[in-house]
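Slack export, channel: ligand-projects

TW: morning all. Re-posting the request from yesterday since it got buried. We need the structure predicted with the small molecule present, not the apo form. The ligand is 2-acetamido-2-deoxy-beta-D-glucopyranose; the SMILES is in the block with the sequence. No rush, but it would help planning for next week.
GE: picking it up
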Amino acid sequence: MYYTSTRILHLLWICLLCLTLLSPYSFAGKMKIVEEPNTFGLNNPFLAQGSRLQPKVTPGPVSGPAHLRRLAGKCFSYIESTYKYEFCPFHNITQHEQSFRWNAYSGILGIWQEWEIVNNTFLAMWMREGDACGNKNRQTKVILTCGGSSKLAQVSEPTTCVYSLSFETPLVCHPHSLLVYPTLSDKLQMEWDEVEQARYENLITEQGYNNLLRDIFEDAGFLKSQKVKEKPDITTTSKTHDSLQKCNQDVRKQREEIERLQALLTQHNIPHESKAAKEKIPLSVTVQNQHLRGDNGLIVDVL
Ligand SMILES: *[C@@H]1O[C@H](CO)[C@@H](O)[C@H](O)[C@H]1NC(C)=O
Ligand SMILES: *[C@@H]1O[C@H](CO)[C@@H](O)[C@H](O)[C@H]1NC(C)=O
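GE: finished. pasting the full token output, ligand included:
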């Protein structure tokens, strides 16, 4: 009797152990349980919130329609099955497993980065750079839709670790409430007008049109710049001197020009400080029959 119950207990213990080990994988699809082998302990609910969720980046600046800025600093939660989602517009979105498991999942699904603009209309807020998911980071698109009160309404995971939520709010019910054009500065509106005109006159391709619009939206801070990796000084240099050879040519031309000008100055007995340069650069340009170019000013051409 004693032996049997111990054995049953023992078996039960093994089964429990197996379930604990297997459950994250066997239910992964259905329950969206997302485990990080290296975050065991970090998800412990007894640890302070701040030390559990470590954002990788700081949120982008508040941008877009002025009447939506009042949402900054507020948070909206939504419970679906075993998960609670917390959306803080212009800040972050997090997911918290509603469970008493010692390693219940709690993680960042994205940090506010940029708008999605479709058809010249603000469509959704992109929260990116969330917790790691394989070799990518979790990201979430929050689509704004008209509704009676501000609340999260739906959640789905269209592709692995890319989440989609819909945020209902009366703030976007007016048909013009999400138009991009009125939110732009006069200067950017003027640029957009010019782009539209160029498209109307078939001066630019559809792709060119889209690229120019993207530039305007980036300048306005609605989209994250895709040009950050380029270093402006390198671009300028590479434009001026396409290659070392070209650079050398330019230097030679400039040296010849300096020599020519110095020779002219000497010829006209005009004092100039170029002794050091003179020593280095042999004068190879003949000065005869050369005239001062352009405006002579006070210098009288004696030839
Ligand atoms: C998410 O945003 C809220 C509201 O601004 C903030 O209080 C909270 O600390 C943020 N959480 C993370 C993990 O960044
Ligand atoms: C864009 O907006 C125009 C006018 O409001 C509409 O006719 C068109 O169907 C929209 N296109 C898309 C892709 O939503």
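GE: first-pass observations. The CA atoms of residues 147 and 170 lie 5 Å apart. The pocket of 2-acetamido-2-deoxy-beta-D-glucopyranose (ligand 1) is lined by residues 53, 55, 73, 75, 88, 91-92, 94, 108 (CB under 6 Å).
TW: perfect, thank you
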